[in-house]
Design brief:
Layout: H1 25-32, E1 38-45, E2 50-59, E3 71-78, H2 79-88, E4 100-105, E5 111-115, H3 124-127, E6 135-142, E7 145-153, E8 165-171
Antiparallel strand pairs: 1-2, 2-3, 4-5, 4-8, 6-7, 7-8
Organism: Candidatus Nitrosarchaeum limnium BG20
Protein name: Cache domain-containing protein
Length: about 180
């Protein structure tokens, strides 16, 4: 509910009913952004060594968005496991694995995930020109090396548009 009381949960490992989450940062952000359809937030659990992501949206009485929300639905999943699956299932040949880097940035330019094989840190600033189009690829210079850079902006899921950017950078072999 809007007071942070967990009314129901689908976590089979831990029953969260009768728990109050009003002080968690993602819940406070959801309350402060109730005029938006949805949002998401990263949760780093350094003690356990993995990252989770929370998607949240408003809950309305009788599913009518014209009313004031009666609660917030939060969907939490293991981001580290999800991104590991995406990176491992990117179709690369064996001879490309050591020269290919993969990145995901959010719409604000924050790096959400990386599998970086380059010698330098890649930031939003170096890639922002590529983000002007929804998808593109080019051969360009980066850190004094020739690379092939591919980019695609996420189309989202149903009406949930994240604006995330997936980037693949492959170093070109010298002849």
């Amino acid at each position: 509910d809007l007071d942070g009381n967990v009314m129901a949960n689908a976590n089979t490992l831990k029953n969260l009913r009768d728990t109050n989450i009003k002080n968690s940062s993602w819940f406070q952000n959801a309350l402060n952004h109730r005029n938006k359809d949805y949002g998401f937030e990263m949760i780093n659990e350094e003690i356990k060594g993995f990252t989770k992501i929370v998607f949240y949206c408003n809950v309305y009485q009788d599913n009518t968005c014209s009313e004031i929300p009666i609660g917030i639905l939060g969907i939490i999943f293991n981001w580290s496991k999800f991104i590991h699956c995406i990176f491992n299932e990117t179709p690369l040949h064996d001879d490309e694995l050591d020269s290919t880097s993969l990145f995901i940035f959010d719409s604000n330019g924050n790096k959400l995930a990386e599998n970086n094989k380059l010698k330098n840190d890649v930031t939003y600033k170096e890639l922002s020109k590529s983000f002007e189009k929804k998808k593109n690829y080019e051969t360009t210079m980066m850190f004094d090396s020739t690379v092939t850079l591919g980019h695609a902006q996420s189309v989202g899921y149903e009406k949930f548009f994240t604006g995330w950017h997936s980037v693949i950078i492959q170093s070109q072999k010298s002849c």
